Amino acid sequence: MIRKLGEGKIRPLGWGNSRQLINEWHHVYGEESYECISTNKKHQFIFSQSKPFDLIELEQLLQSVGWSRRPLRRVQKALDNSLLKVGLWQHDPRFPRLIGFARCTGDGVLQATVWDVAIHPVYQGFGLGKELMSYVMKSLKIMNIERVILFADPGVVSFYKSQGWMLEPNGYRCAFWYAN
What we know:
The protein has helices at about 20-30, 55-65, 70-80, 130-140, 155-160, and strands at about 1-5, 35, 45-50, 85-90, 95-105, 110-120, 145-150. It has five helices and seven strands.
């Protein structure tokens, strides 16, 4: 379940539901931040589209799920050119930890493609990947995107199918060209 910070009941760990706390969260994560309620009750998780990414922390997250290292300058350029980028943070008032990420590219009108979806292995199995994708899809729907495409490694196709994604609908196939 996703809730906008400051709306409804916010259940921070060991904190009261005060305006001061909400202001602190907005200072750390940005105004467009949302609480993610997961089955992992030990931690609190926040979605943010506006909190800047530490590129080294992002690279460490992506490597934790088995992706190869990318030049940080190119990663920054990819982020700059993304239609949507979402971080999922384990809340800590002093040191929020990036534990999930997704980004989308597209024309901003008709189509978007979801890339680089990752949940740190320590936090997998708590429903966070499902909530991250739900947040991404709601954000794209707000933009009135008509079609969303996703590329996934074979090992995670079943996850996306369980979320309602169609595998190669209508017999569509993709073609790729690699510059190497």
